[in-house]
Fold this sequence. Notes:
Blueprint: H1 2-24, H2 26-40, E1 45-52, H3 60-64, E2 70-73, E3 91-95, E4 98-103, H4 110-120, E5 122-129, H5 140-158, E6 167-171, H6 178-191, E7 195-199, E8 201-202, E9 205-206, H7 210-221, E10 225-229, H8 245-264, H9 267-270, E11 277-279, H10 286-299, E12 319-321, H11 327-337, E13 342-343, H12 359-362, H13 369-384
Parallel strand pairs: 1-5, 5-6, 6-7, 7-10, 10-11, 11-12, 12-13
Antiparallel strand pairs: 2-3, 3-4, 8-9
Helix pairs in contact: 2-13, 5-6, 6-7
Amino acid sequence: MQAAATSFVARQSCAASARLEMLSSPLHRGFAAAASHAVSGSKGAVDIHSHFLPEKWPDFVERYGGSGWPSMRHTGSLPPGTFGYERECSAMLMMDGEDFRPVTKACWDIHARLEDLDKAGIQHQLLSATPILFQWHQPPAAALDVARYFNDYLIEMVSFPEANGRLHALCQVPLQDPDLAMEEVSRAKRSGHKGVQIGNHVGPKDLDDEGLVTFLKHCADEDVAVLVHPWDMANPDNRLSKYMMGWTVGMPMETHLSITAMILGGAFDRLPRSLKICFAHGGGAFPLILGRIENAWRERSIARGKSLHPPSSYLDRFSVDSACFGHRELRLLVDCFGAERVMLGSDYPFPLGEQQIGDLVRTSPDLSLGQKERLLYANAATFFGINVEIP
Length: 391
């Protein structure tokens, strides 16, 4: 066991040395110096993790029946106070006619969103559905109709003239039916979407499920970037129902569960290296538990699952966003994955998002200017195919 731990530490040390050598190269120093004004001036930043909600949408309950449908309430009593980015509640997001969460007009109002982005110095932002819109428990045909409606709405939203090309769309798909999901992601790409956002599981199926792997392979084949967002958090005994722990604990848990399932389930071994996949919320606690998973992989054969290599061998197969909210945590992300695999993500416009978008990266005492420019815009520009203007 000691030998296994020593081997793991040695590999991590070698990887860190290699990254240090890269960052010390004359070419990289020159690139970092050229980017220093962009970093300090907050220009060029790309936020890959934000959400939208339309102000209203069709009555899908009337159209399809069933339960679990979301809706918006703009009238009646709304809670006082602010609910993200110093904005008051503008509407109540509902589930089956019951209050679910207060939301602000920044969810649908482009002017409000651009105002907030200008304040934060964000040049580009990718928008994706609030996961309650997925509707993966509905019949596939209904979920496809829902996905098409919101995908077309989002393309119109990001094409708003005042946005001037700064906003970009990530589509949703009816992932309970991989064939329909592949059909819709291809259609969405043709209509201008920069990628797709999916939840981290479909009921009991994790992302190592054969049908979901087939969908991910399709994304790789069509060069569609994938953002994995936690949702539908496991809470069988309601222990996460208090103190917002469903969001603060449950969401990170879903994220690192998803990464681990992909690794140990052999998904990465079955998928091409060309797949561009990023996990939101900093990958959950995955960087912290990697050593434990690695040790178990070496010491117990049943802990290896279907993976062909130790878990640390797959760190170059996926990226994470920076939504970890602390300098120590950000340093851990960069130490674990390398600066080339971390991208700025805020979770805008919700109150648990980074309220000063990008400040965590910009003010980090541990990252070089070259690393900051990677996190703020360079990685995202490559990952999502965005033209970023650097002053």
